Amino acid sequence: MLVNKRTAALILSILTVMGSSACSAQTATETETETEDLTIYESEITETTFGLGSYVKGSYWLGSESDEFENVSYLCLVVELEDSVMKTGNDLFYSYSVSKDGGQIFMSEQVEMDSAVINCTFGTSTGDLLPGGTYSVTCFDMNGAVIAGATASVTETPIVAPDMSEDWEPYDDSEYLNSYTYEITDEEFEGLVNTDLSSWWDYSDTSVGLSAYASDSSVLGFSLVTDKWSDDSLYYAFYFTEDGTFSEENENLEPVFVNRVALIQYSDFASYDIDVKPEMLLPGYYCFIVSKDSSFENIVMEGSCLVVSETMEEVSEDA
């Protein structure tokens, strides 16, 4: 149990009267200072405050058995407490801070506990990778007392995607309109994918087919739904061709976008969101490949979508 102490100065005026003596009703420790006709007593009063420290079972980094991470977009220090803490009848809150290379970069607000497990999570709002460095997470209870802490090393490895194959061929336009155009190329990985739910995702109501988008779409995204949870990340690269061909002559072999993606848990499914937000969306074919590693030595999936020249409004008018 944690104890807070405060020092209260109790000033008692004692008249010098024959036979009288000074006394104090509240004393834990006393120091006496005498003046000509005044005696000052300082009393240290002890108060007891409920804290979380004695309930902590331990802590660990989510997604790693060590304190070393490579190409991650977030860190989460999990602090486990005894289940009995939730039955104490006290208002339970926690907060946490994050430091990078010795300097504080984040401090959370007080968070109310709804279970005996605390998740101290820090990441980028855009899902980009955390810069490499040494990160420290410190967890506090509602009194500001430290109840857990840990330090992790984060390494950011460059994502190196290959050039697109000049042998690539698009699907027929009718297939882009009427089916989900992708292929799982790794048999083991295919066993993890829910092919019934995986599909191109319509973020802005601008799809003109199951795998086709209007030219005023803001995001092209494929939702790769899995049946099993995994802490492993995937790496993907998008390529663009206006006429359906890739070649050195067209200068379009290099990817237009590369990224790392972690599995995200939604209310009723978990998926890898393979998204791209082009600064200027052009009519043509956007292709992607997915790999288990940042050097794309283990490609497990590929897919493509069609972007038509018409805007959504123009498509609606022609319908």
Short key terms for the protein model shown above:
Immunoglobulin-like; seven-stranded mixed β-sheet; 3 helices; six-stranded mixed β-sheet; disordered N terminus; 319 residues; 3 domains; mainly beta
Gross CATH architecture of the largest domain: Sandwich
Order of helices and strands: EEEEEEEEEEEEHEHEEEEEEEEEEH
Distance between the termini: 71 Å
Rough shape?
Answer: elongated
The residue ranges in which pLDDT falls below 50 over 5 or more consecutive positions are 1-48
What is the overall number of helices?
A: 3
How many domains in all?
Answer: 3
**DSSP strand content:** 35-45%
Mean pLDDT: 85
Please give the largest β-sheet.
7 strands, mixed
Measured as a percent range, the helix fraction is under 10%
Radius of gyration: 31 Å
CATH topology of the largest domain: Immunoglobulin-like
The secondary structure category is mainly beta
CATH uppermost class of the largest domain: Mainly Beta
Write down how many β-strands occur, each being a DSSP E stretch of 2 or more residues: 23
Going by CATH, the homologous superfamily of the largest domain would be: Macroglobulin (MG2) domain
